[in-house]
Amino acid sequence: MSADGINLLRTKVFDKSKWMQLPRDVVIGHDVIEQLPAVCEDLALGDSVLIITGDTTRDIAGKRVEALLAGSYDVATFAAGGDPLESIRKAEAAAAEAGFVIGVGGGRVIDTAKIASYNTDRHFISVPTAASHDGIASSRASVPTPEGNVSLAAEPPVAVVADTAVIASAPHRLLASGCADIMANYTAILDWELSNRLRGEPLSEYALTLSRMTAEILFKNADLIKPHSEESAWIVTKALVSSGVAMSIAGSSRPGSGGEHKFSHALDRLSPGKGLHGEKCGIGAIITMYLHGGDWQGIRSSLKKVGAPTTPAEIGVDDETAVEALLAARTIRPERFTILDMGLTRESARDLVKMLYRE
Fold this sequence. Notes:
By secondary structure, the protein is an alpha/beta fold. 49% of the residues lie in helices and 13% in strands. It contains 14 helices and eight strands.
């Protein structure tokens, strides 16, 4: 009797799958906000649009976007502000009545638009007025709560329209913060690799490589980052979009968020309102790079070149609070293993903060 016809085991097939959402259109350059109608037409998202702005950013670019789209779309507007959670709820109600959403503004406005579009299943176009962090193109959103900022899954933009003339006119501190957020990718991927080795966390080589290349762009061009320069705005915005794409490829914020981000979120809790997100991540990156045995001085030097702070004192945080933030970092997203989760002592934390001031 032959066993040829007996098949006891299911034929193995390759069944690994992953859903990646990436921007279809990315337009970066001088006066490209004028191309927004063409982008909307290309994407064919619907006949009605909700434009989410802030009180300040509406004057900077929001009204211009309204005027550009008014002839072709039923345009509604929403001003994000006040209590963040209440603002998001109201934005969701407004988004539910529109075909798609456009966020015109800085980080808080873009995050509100992301969450509102995600929760109402609407496409979202990102029109940043500043390049202060990589949220302009990522699938994550940061929401302030009484316990500190919370990172949530959100709708990645189907398009990014970044006008360098608008971005270059914003306060340079915002651009420098964006640079710091990208430079922190260096330590984020070191933490990711560490977690892969010690905890077996899955690793995406594509996302990791893209994140590293993005950080290298800013390290190599740190001397070119100048106040109110469109070339600087162009370099930083391209890097921020690239970082957001790396997160979409990975399916998480891992390529751009490690121990330095946990330190930043701990500072949010301990010293709310002190320092911009990217600024705190940059300071955290100096510390975590030191712990990884890497070129922490190179990170500090590059941050100084772009005009970003490198010590807690520069963002109005006292050193002992920074020590507490380092020790509390392990309580932030404990499922995300980083170099700061390896038993840092209070004495070592104090030495790390002192190191930041070392010449």
